[in-house]
Amino acid sequence: MDWKLALITLVVVPLLYLLAAMFANKIRIIYRIIRKGTARLNAFLQENILGMRLIQLMRRTDWSYGKFSLFPTVSWGLKLPTSTITGCFSLYLNSLA
User: Fold this and answer.
1) Residue 2 φ then ψ, to 5°
2) Under a CB-based contact definition with an 8 Å cutoff, are residues 38 and 93 in contact?
3) Of 61 and 43, more confident
4) Could you give the count of Cα atoms lying within 13 Å of 77 in the half-sphere of its Cβ?
5) Is 2 left (phi over 0), alpha (psi -120 to 50) or beta?
6) DSSP assignment letter at 97
7) Strand, helix or coil at 58?
8) Cα–Cα distance between 63 and 61 in angstroms, integer?
9) Among 59, 60, 80, 78, which Cα is nearest to 68's?
10) Is 34 exposed, middle or buried (0-12, 13-18, 19+ CB in 10 A)?
């Protein structure tokens, strides 16, 4: 048995575990926000598609379009931090390998 290899393993594995736990916590928070935003967008679309005649009768198409145009900005704004965190985590994992 090689005691040096065992020592390296005992040092690297806890660091890897901590890094994976930090990654999971950060990604979980961001993905939860993205899922909530997607759910709100789906509900808005369903509501407006089913009520299209009423929206047109009440002449609220401009209001509906304005409200719809705000939805993609929330989702796109969170995808950059997600990609950054995933990239950093992959970099750390590849450097350990």
Assistant:
1) -100, 115
2) no
3) 43
4) 7
5) beta
6) -
7) coil
8) 5
9) 60
10) middle
The tokens of 74 are what?
């929330």
pLDDT band at 95; cut points 50, 70, 90: confident
d(CA 28, CA 22): 10
Give me the residue label for tokens 């379009």: 65
Asked if 29 contacts 91 with a C-beta cutoff of 8 angstroms, the reply is no
Mean pLDDT value across the chain = 78
pTM of the entire structure? 0.61
- Show me where the domains of the chain are located: 3-96
Q: What is the CA radius of gyration of the chain?
A: 23
Residue ranges with strand state E in the chain: none
